[in-house]
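WARN retry 2 of 3 for item q-0093 after timeout on previous attempt; input resubmitted unchanged.
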Amino acid sequence: MSIIRFEEVGHSFGDRTVLREVNLSLTEHRIGIVGANGSGKSTLVRMINGLVTPTSGTVTVDALNVARHARDVRRKVGFIFTNPDNQIVMPTVQEDVAFTLRRRGLSPAEISTRTAAALEQFGLSGHAEHPAHRLSGGQKQLLALAAVLVAQPATIVADEPTTLLDARNARRIGELLQTLPQQVIVVTHHLHLVEEFDRVIVIEEGEVVADGAPAQSLATYRALLQ
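OK item q-0093 returned
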């Protein structure tokens, strides 16, 4: 697991302040982040692997400044988007998983072995030669997970990974995230996904307004919704 620190982090877009003076140290195994639309929670987690750069303050992963060492950090941190179509890049399922490893300079034999194992883990072996973009929504999200996890990152960040899925596939993805050995940071509106996590952080209008045990933090969030 990684040690992720936000120190006096702020972010502005034009004249809009998205985050202000965020200070966090993320070390737990499973961390949930919740908040209303536009609260800044997605901006926050996208800073963890350099998809967004803070306009003030610093974000570090294992003491690496993300703004300066984004490439090294991305080897430690895998990112799952809400819409898996945003990260599927190759024509077939097998090629898409293997693509991650080809950028690591591994031998063809090792790429083949690890790709096959990842497809088996996520129930995609029977779809290996299928066009990736013709999979169902749930299968695409499983493919996105496989393509990230095959690289064996220490941390997985998932930004609303179940929002576009039906109830059955959302439950399946949620169960997988619960059981991963990696550190998992999940942004979600589906509060049941994080009820058993180690820690839940609530973001409201760019600020951390609750941070602690799930029951306490989620109670605070539900009160904000009233």
